[in-house]
Write a structure and sequence with these properties.
Strand content of chain A: 15-25%
Largest interface: A-B, 45 and 45 residues
Oligomer: homodimer
Shape of chain A: globular
Number of helices of chain A: 18
Helix content of chain A: 40-55%
Number of strands of chain A: 15
Strand order of the largest sheet of chain A: 1-4-5-15-10-11-14
Chain lengths: 458, 458
């Protein structure tokens, strides 16, 4: 039998020409966003003041199975795509498992993660629609970096509201964004009413993602030719991220292999959603059965311990209401180095699929996750992001089950990014000072109690 | 005409099976290393106490045109190779040049540079020969990181002597090495006689590369089953790095293109030497003419302002004498963020080729280099290492000459690595605090005066 190469690359001409819109194949659709004032489903007109037109349309489109990727955007994708599908020979050997492990690696670009797939698309549409500037928020920094690169490439101004504590802890992330020409503002700031109000109440606050979102939205809606963009949770973001799964599917076809189990990490759900999309489509259409496993941090367990309710997307309660697995929008996760997974909610698509039993979910502690990360780094030569390392841990769990049972399953996981800007976390792990804080049931109940008591939540 | 894809990847089975030994095709060979005591050419026996046997043999082999890459090592290479040859469509557009620009990108691995090509080879041979530990020095950290990854993969212990000032300025580089299990010691240290002597004389010294080399050698020769390895300058390192040029050559063949001008950055010469090797071979054999351009920092201009003399490789004058372009082994370059290019000497192979007129050389200031780096980052989406950015600057110079003359030349340059661990330098550049210090003629003359006055230097 011919040996499967370590890396399976598609040709550039094999880059997907269309995104795959999983919602079109979901008989049981995700619930619609609700206008927080009227509690009616959001219309295009409701969301146009905040979002670019094309993105707003994509957000509400749950009928077209495929959405064309414009030719010009495909050329931009070709700067960093196709990304490789990698056979984890080194990891398999280190684990002594009969399982075949593959990972789709999205970290080979300067943003260091899959976020660039949606950032490029969003900057492209903004430019096309004649916008001159964008605003966004960033926590861990991956999204802000990706959008900075995309805006620099398209020639659009960008203001990034970066959670203050994060901008202080990660000066190098800030420096990358600034090198790409973005204006990075520590949030809360005195550039917005929201920021000023928060600073007045607590001048020493380290900020929060919720506050940064509110500031970015305020600037977008009060600035001419400006819109707000975001990098996860939303349907249009998952649509863009479907390139991950489509490429993985095409690469597997090249080598005549089908995965049995697909594992991804989940914060807002964009990486998992993009990775599983076409495979989930096959499952929903009855073509092939797969097991899907979502791995989340034990410190922020929205799928495993949250509730499937309508809730706000931000702490300040300014967004539409979204039906999703949530810990309550006031939830403050304990310190966890996987900043990209510290979100109280979850993509409505992933939430619905989980609610309907199509996805399994597990929660892992960060010390276990870093143990897996280190094993992976040595065996595979890539230092993974703390976020992505949750997927590694999930894949290792499955590979060890295969070893126990002597099963030769094919496991695919999403390696969403690299950890080069997360060395502080690795230093803590190496020195043994990394610890785990898991919320108690009483704490979770208290946060969930802050979710709005609207009729739909009954 | 078919559009040339942005990235040209070889198949894994097209990975070079043999390294190309350029010295075999040099009618006028590099001068031999001399034993500093006898001033006779070094024999195998002279260097075996310091180097692994196979590496020592490769060091002295200037007759075999090809050296086989062991099958097991090729499998290790396949973790991060083949590396892409990239058509710089974005940069061409940004410059408005008719030139076609390509770059061979070596940064898509966790070490972030081409150094892993030789690190994997050296760790592989060390393991094969039954060694249990290695020592090395690192300045900027790329080499130390690459060797840490290679040793972790092969299961060999590693001690890295890291220039103290660098280990303090780059804690994250140190953290990556430690994550891969290496022992990182700030040099000078109290673990060696050399280190203790230096610390006694100057307890507050920030250390130097020369001192770190001396400490690493001392430990290697006094520890059982241990050898010293290094990542540039030496002939065997350039041999390993020939995979860069061989892959570039094969990729160009795929698309039916031949470069006219080949540009690389030079510190010790390993990247440039590897990139140009097979092309220079064609030139020396009269098959095709190319222009080769070496770009060095104006603050450490060994080719452009040094002398072609026998000199020591380290400050402590413990190595064999090497005939090379040198500024004197006591030369202390002014602060420059391209740490990997701050070396007083130059590979003997590159030195000889330059001396014989086969290579041109230019020196660039770091502010100009960072300007090019930023332009490149925006146009191509990759944040380059300060070292590699010298090659970018050199390629831009040539592309702008083409624009002026309306010439459609094909330019190839080596993008040896990424700048993710160099954000301090970018921050200085972004804030306008980066400055240039170029040594005066009198200063250079003073350093050159420290070169040993042996008969061969007459």
């Amino acid at each position: 039998m011919k040996k499967i190469p370590t890396k399976i690359y598609l040709e550039e001409r094999e880059l997907p020409k269309k995104w795959y819109n999983l919602r079109a194949d979901m008989k049981s659709k995700p619930e619609p966003m609700l206008h927080p004032g009227t509690l009616n489903p959001c219309t295009l007109e409701d969301i146009l003041p905040v979002f670019c037109t094309e993105l707003a349309k994509q957000e509400l489109n749950d009928t077209d199975r495929f959405v064309e990727i414009p030719e010009e955007l495909r050329a931009m994708y070709s700067m960093f795509r196709p990304s490789p599908l990698i056979r984890a020979y080194g990891l398999e050997k280190a684990l002594g498992t009969p399982a075949h492990i593959y990972y789709k690696f999205e970290g080979n670009n300067t943003s260091g993660s899959h976020k660039l797939n949606s950032a490029m698309a969003q900057a492209y549409y903004a430019k096309k629609e004649g916008l001159t500037s964008l605003t966004t928020e960033t926590g861990a920094g991956q999204w802000g970096t990706a959008l900075s690169m995309a805006c620099a490439h398209c020639g659009i101004d960008l203001s990034v509201y970066m959670v203050k504590v994060s901008s202080e802890q990660k000066p190098y992330r800030k420096a990358v964004m600034e090198t790409y020409g973005a204006k990075v503002i520590a949030s809360p700031s005195n550039t917005t009413n929201t920021g000023r109000a928060i600073l007045e109440g607590d001048p020493k606050t380290g900020g929060s993602l919720g506050c940064a979102i509110s500031e970015a939205i305020e600037v977008a809606v009060t600035t001419e030719n400006c819109r707000y963009v975001l990098g996860s949770v939303m349907n249009h973001v998952l649509l863009h991220q479907s390139v991950i799964g489509l490429e993985a599917q095409a690469a597997f076809e090249k080598i005549g292999v089908k995965p049995d189990i697909i594992v991804g990490c989940t914060g807002g759900g964009s990486n998992l959603g993009g990775l599983i999309a076409p495979f989930m489509g096959e499952k929903l259409r009855g073509k092939k059965d797969y097991r899907f496993v979502a791995v989340e941090p034990a410190s922020c367990p929205s799928l495993t311990r949250g509730k499937y309710l309508y809730d706000f997307g931000d702490t300040a309660c300014t967004t539409p209401l979204i039906r999703m697995y949530t810990l309550g929008s006031k939830f403050i996760p304990s310190a966890n180095h996987a900043g990209g997974l510290r979100y109280h909610g979850m993509s409505p698509v992933i939430s619905k699929l989980f609610h309907d039993g199509h996805i399994e979910a597990i929660a892992e502690t960060q010390t276990d996750v870093f143990e897996s990360a280190k094993l992976f780094a040595k065996a595979e030569g890539i230092l993974p992001a703390p976020e992505s390392s949750h997927a590694i841990k999930g894949a290792i769990n499955e590979a060890l089950k295969c070893k126990e049972k002597g099963e030769k399953k094919v496991i695919l996981f999403g390696l969403s990014g690299t950890g080069y800007f997360d060395m502080q976390a690795y230093m803590a792990f190496n020195s043994g000072t990394l610890s785990d804080t898991i919320p108690t049931d009483a704490e979770i109940a208290k946060w969930i109690d802050t979710i709005p008591k609207i009729p739909q939540n009954a």
